[in-house]
Amino acid sequence: MRTLVLNAGFEPLAVITFRRALLLVLTGKATVLANDDRHPVIGVNHVMPRPTVILLNRYVRLPYRTSINVSRRGVLRRDGHRCAYCGRSANTIDHIVPRSRGGEDSWENLVAACQGCNSAKGDRTLAQLGWKLRFAPSRPRGAQWFITELERPAEAWSPFLRSAA
C-alpha cells in the first residue's frame, strides 16, 4: 500500500505509505491524482478511496547532488536487469575493462550481465572476445534514481513516471 508523491512540477519525489498520503491530502498539502477504489479507507465518518498518486501543492526544493554513487543495485536497475552482452535476464554485474587490467568501479565501466556471459568473459576485454555491448553505459540522471521503490512501480504510477534515461 504505497503512494507515489509528485513534486509540484510533476517529478517523482518519494514513495510513502497511504496513511502519510491521507494526512497530506486532509491537511491540504497535497491533491490526489489517482486512487484505488478497490481498497477504500474506512473511517468513522468517511469512506475514502486509497490514494496511489498525490501531487504536492507547493514545490519542494531538493538538495543538489552532483553524483550518484555506483552500486550493484544501481547498475542492475539502470540496465533494466538485462545482460549488456546477450540481452537475457541479468543477476550479476561485470567490468567492461577488467579490474585486473586497470578497470575501475564506475558507471561507464560496469554493466549488468547474466551468469553465463560473466563467466565466459572472465578477465578478458571485449576486443579479445569480439563481443559488443548492446548499449553504451552512462551515469544515470534524474531525481527518480534516488527513489529505490521505483524499481517495482505500481501500475497506477505509469502515467506519472517519465522514463529514466
TrEMBL record:
<protein>
    <recommendedName>
        <fullName>HNH nuclease domain-containing protein</fullName>
    </recommendedName>
</protein>
<dbReference type="Pfam" id="PF01844">
    <property type="entry name" value="HNH"/>
</dbReference>
<dbReference type="InterPro" id="IPR002711">
    <property type="entry name" value="HNH"/>
</dbReference>
<dbReference type="GO" id="GO:0008270">
    <property type="term" value="F:zinc ion binding"/>
</dbReference>
<dbReference type="InterPro" id="IPR052892">
    <property type="entry name" value="NA-targeting_endonuclease"/>
</dbReference>
<dbReference type="InterPro" id="IPR003615">
    <property type="entry name" value="HNH_nuc"/>
</dbReference>
<feature type="domain" description="HNH nuclease">
    <location>
        <begin position="70"/>
        <end position="119"/>
    </location>
</feature>
<dbReference type="GO" id="GO:0004519">
    <property type="term" value="F:endonuclease activity"/>
</dbReference>
<dbReference type="GO" id="GO:0003676">
    <property type="term" value="F:nucleic acid binding"/>
</dbReference>
